[in-house]
Specification:
Distance between the termini: 25 Å
Strand content: under 5%
Largest sheet: none
Shape: elongated
Number of domains: 1
Number of strands: 0
Order of helices and strands: HHHHH
Number of helices: 5
Helix content: over 70%
Length: about 140
């Protein structure tokens, strides 16, 4: 991972509005922390690997295009994750913590994908400025 791209990404996130930072924290907790609780389960492993791969993709995008709306492409792998979890949730009742977590991840990631799609469309229509300028 390129250290400068990582630093640029972190600086960009730090300058986002509080509500966006809270939303990102919720996504990180559901996709990157909660799977550690269920790490022996396949769905949790797949979710964690997808989270890490998405983070790496976002660092690459930050390196190439900056902290722009194109970072929404970083969650493209979540489409595959949603399809995978959809096929697996039937064996995990919603009344159990693991089944509830799977459904929560699916709902959060689906909502995030809607926001990401909107951002990518804005980028493709010409909004190529940094989302949160990283220079003073």
């Amino acid at each position: 991972m390129n250290p400068e791209a990582f630093a640029r990404f972190v600086r960009g996130v730090a300058r986002l509005p509080l509500a966006v930072k809270v939303w990102l924290g919720v996504l990180m907790a559901a996709n990157g922390v909660a799977p550690l609780v269920f790490l022996t389960r396949r769905e949790a492993q797949v979710t964690l690997v997808t989270f890490l791969a998405s983070a790496a993709l976002m660092m690459i995008l930050t390196h190439v295009v900056g902290f722009t709306r194109l970072l929404g492409l970083g969650h493209l792998l979540w489409v595959l994750l949603l399809l995978y979890l959809w096929t697996r949730m039937g064996g995990h009742p919603a009344a159990q913590p693991y089944g509830a977590w799977i459904r929560l991840v699916m709902a959060l990631n689906a909502a995030s994908l809607v926001l990401d799609a909107r951002d990518v469309v804005r980028y493709l229509r010409g909004d190529r400025n940094e989302m949160a300028p990283t220079s003073p």
